[in-house]
Records
---
Amino acid sequence: MKQVFKMTYPTGKIYIGFCSGEGEDDLSAFNWPKFRAELATLPVHQRVDYTIRRQVIWEDERVSSDELFQCWQETVSAYNACDPDTGYNLPSDKVEARCNTDGWRLGVDGCRAGWFYIGSQGPDIKYGVVRTIAELFDSFKSITEVIIDIPIGLYDEGAQARRCDPLARKALKPRGSTVFPAPVRPCLYTDSYEEACRISEQLTGKKLSQQAYNIFAKIREVDELLQRDVSLRSVIHEAHPELGFCMLNGGSPLLTKKKNSDGLAERLALLKRHLEWAPRLYDEATNQYPRQALAKDDIVDAMMCLCIATAPERERVTVPDPVIHDGKGIEMAMHIFSPS
């Protein structure tokens, strides 16, 4: 059900928000700094124990996204919620600027047919398969962020590991083996696993796993794209889905395997807390694409990446923090959603 609602806070002020019916209440126009500052002025007993009242002002399950947004704007105006003496809604000019610049956010995972993506722009959801990452930018008019399950940012030589890899393995213990060591860049341009191992051993003193080698083509594709187009370095970011699920699970790694039915069910249950439509889209995608093109766990991993892409900024974290960059200026960090 699509709704416009009013929240009343212990300070006596209000916020007008909306819910698309596909996820959580939208609080993106909330003036968080002002609320925190005013909350701090209340007596201690009110700051540590308070209730927020949520009232539905209007609802309709059949309206379009534009109609929902228009109704929300009208309600903000009717309640004068942008007035700092009345509410916590950001001024309308800032909201308009955000709405005009905030494009699609996508979660992407590699699959046998190329790349599986799930995109979100407000209440609108799209998913599909593209052959190359570059095709995403032809398919969507405006993309704000892409969270992708692939190593981004590589050393050109040396035995040092990317800092994010051992940190992720430590957080996922005893499932740390799900994090493959990222290769050094020259290995991506070899013609065989044996040659890649030889180059890796020559440059780092270590060989490569067959599993890591199997995704070299996709690592190379993203790396070359980021080298060609510097502007995309602030758009395309790396994530590791198992680390993402660990954070959704309160910091405890999932011990089930994502390719098994119980593992898929556990991950979908965690996703549903933040993406209400996750089980439905999972069923649709599994019915639409054959397994030889798209595996079931590819769908779940892309959802996890989208969950990170759409997370509130205050609950986004990088591993490591601060971010480290490689010799070409490309960041080497995993992005995660750490629910408060």
Note: The chain has two domains: 2-101, 103-340.
---
Amino acid sequence: MKKMMLVVLIVGSAMISPVQVKADVSMPCSAVLEPVTTDNANAKGAALVYKVKLTPSFPRTSVSIHANHLPVPSTAGDYDGYEGFTFIPNEISWRFKLFPTPEEGSPTWAGRIDDITADITNSTMEVRLSNTKTGKLGPVILRNTMNACK
């Protein structure tokens, strides 16, 4: 009976309060965003993550993304741009527009969001296709996690 109680206690405590795996990430940091398919092997990006204090209130987290050699958005369907997409799985997400530079051929796409208040230690950062007219977010082109942030 004592063994049975011990097993129930151990299993019950593991189910009720599972250990959360947290990355050991200090800010500021950056992560290389890698292509999710071999179709976009030349595409690469970088995410810069750090704390900013833009108002008298508490600091926020800023995520900025810089991406190069992305395919022309319309080649993947009904898309006309790119967005940065940062999310904590099953919790919250943030979208922000990436703007192209005026370079010909293959512009650099860049943008940022400065008002994240959540702890984004276990988040993922992506570059995704988007349709600015419909608000539709498309497939992921580049991705990495805060665990890769150095």
Note: DSSP finds one helix and eight strands in the chain.
---
Amino acid sequence: MKVEQLREKEHIHKKIIEACKQGDNRSRYELYALYSKAMFNISYRMMNNREEAEDMLQEAFTQAFLKLESFRYESNFGAWLKRIVVNTCINAINKKKVELTYCEEIYDYDATEESNDYEPEYTVANITKAMEKLPEGGRMVFSLYLLEGYDHAEISQILGITESTSKSQFMRAKRRIVETLKQTHGDAMDNS
């Protein structure tokens, strides 16, 4: 494929985006319909609350439509919009003046204690449910790194923490999720 064809393919929604820049409301609705579900999922993982996630989604799309003139097709539209959603969520959390609660190492991980012969079910639904139990800071780092694809350097800039804090929070969150899944699996085994 030629470079021009690749660029065209990258910006498959260019006509819709250009119509939105001209103020076409149908195109705005179409763009919203194309991206709202994926952006809601990001927002929900960040906010951990359906109503707040819906509010953040609306606010992010409002900002995106206001800033649409600045979109220059240097990246794909989804990545550009995702950054707006993530920043909107982080700003909302900061506005609430909620200090991010990072996981404290409350468990001394001892491999000798691990004598379970089963592995928990690592499904999207189970992991998502386990994520809801994480402290806010750990949940955000876990979500940004594993689900949104940011690296630890980017996360440190986004959240205003050190890169090593991002790495350690990710590992602690991951360990917590595994423990939660094992506990949930163990409880399910006890009830059967």
Note: The chain has two domains: 3-95, 111-191.
